[in-house]
Structure formats: C-alpha cells, structure tokens
Amino acid sequence: MAFPRRLLNDREEVVCDLVPHWSTLAKPVGALVVVLAATIAGFVVNRWAGLALAAVLVVVAGWAGVRVARRQCTNFVVTTDRLVYRSGVVAKHGKEIPLERVNDIAYHQSIFERVIGTGDLSIESAGAQSRETFGDIPHPAAVQNEIYRQMEACSARHAGGANVASPPLSVTDQLEKLADLRQRGIITPAEFEAKKQQLLDRI
C-alpha cells in the first residue's frame, strides 16, 4: 500500500516508498505450496487423509494471507524532509526521523541477502538512545546512498534560506523607527537627536 500523500507536509515529496523484501513471504508461500501438494496427494490416497490435510491447508492459507497483508501495510519511506516507517494492518504504528537529525546510516547484508537484494538498515539520529534498525529493506546500499543525497539537499535548502539577508533599511525608514521608539518612551529625546544626527551624517 502506497504511503498516503495526505500525510506529506507542504512542498514535501516522496523519494522512495518501499515495502519489505519479497523474501519475507518465502516461508508462508513455501509452506502453502507444500501443504497444497500434500492435500492433493492425500485425496488421491485416502479421502479422510485429504480432509485432514485440507483443514491444515486452510490454516496455512490464513497465515500466508496475514503475512501478505502485513507486508503490504508496512512502508519505509524516504521523503525530501524525513524518514518514515509505518506498519500495521488495522492499528498503525509509526516512526519518523527528520533528515537533519540523522547522524549515521549503516547497512548489513549476509551473503545470501546480498544475492537476493535485501538487508537491514541501521540509522542513528540525534537525541535517540540507540540506533533504529529496519529489517528486510530492498537494496539497502542504494537506499543508504539516496538518504545521504536527500540529507545534502536538505542541508543546502536550509543553508540557502539562512543566507537570504533582509534588505537594509533606508535612512528614512530608520528615522521613522527612531521616532516611534521616542514616542513610546523607549529612548529619550536626547538619544533620539544623537542617533538622528548620526544617520544624517551618513547622507
């Protein structure tokens, strides 16, 4: 299930929207295939054996269905502003890490996980007690690189916004502000005259 766009902030865009790797379904789907084959064979050999195995098949099919639903309702999302992890079919659980708070990202893959393209992503953020580890991430090395790219872009946006200076006030505007300060009693008439003369000397 795609990450709901209504949960995005203004001008925030989704960069990656990932569900757990397909390998998380290997066990339930494998068990379902084995029990299905056994059930068919059971009906061929003995009707009662087939019925018993059919009951087992229903249970395994239910288990596989729950695992599929869980996978489809779990999202690891990278946006232009944050990392979001959401899980849960009915009740939702979520974690969010702003990109500017991410300190370090690491990933781990076994040899088999590297072959099939999955692994764990470990993220350390400012203020967190420990690392957050997210398992079964597809192609974790590529996801790590993408997060770093978005962190750099986020830092550049913030730096650009901080470097935008307000235009300097004209002498006339500054005199008006001084007059307002004098009327409100924040500066004395003598201080007003002194500051006024300093401004006029610049002209």
SSE order and pairing:
Blueprint: E1 14-18, H1 26-45, H2 47-72, E2 75-79, E3 82-87, E4 93-98, E5 102-108, H3 111-116, E6 118-125, E7 132-138, H4 140-162, H5 171-183, H6 189-201
Antiparallel strand pairs: 1-2, 2-3, 3-4, 5-6, 6-7
Helix pairs in contact: 1-2, 5-6
Give an account of the 3D structure:
This protein is α+β, with helices and mostly antiparallel strands. The chain has 3 domains: about 1-20 and about 75-165, Roll (PH-domain like), CATH 2.30.29.30; about 20-75; about 170-200. Helix content is about 50%, strand content about 20%. The chain has 6 helices and 7 strands. It has helices spanning about 25-45, 45-70, 110-115, 140-160, 170-185, 190-200; strands spanning about 15-20, 75-80, 80-85, 95-100, 100-110, 120-125, 130-140. The strands form 2 sheets. Strands 1-2-3-4 form a 4-stranded antiparallel sheet. The chain has a 3-stranded antiparallel sheet with strand order 5-6-7. A hairpin with a 2-residue loop joins strand 2 and strand 3 (about 80-85). The longest helix is centred in the first third of the chain and has 26 residues, at about 45-70. It starts with 13 loop residues before the first strand and ends with a helix.
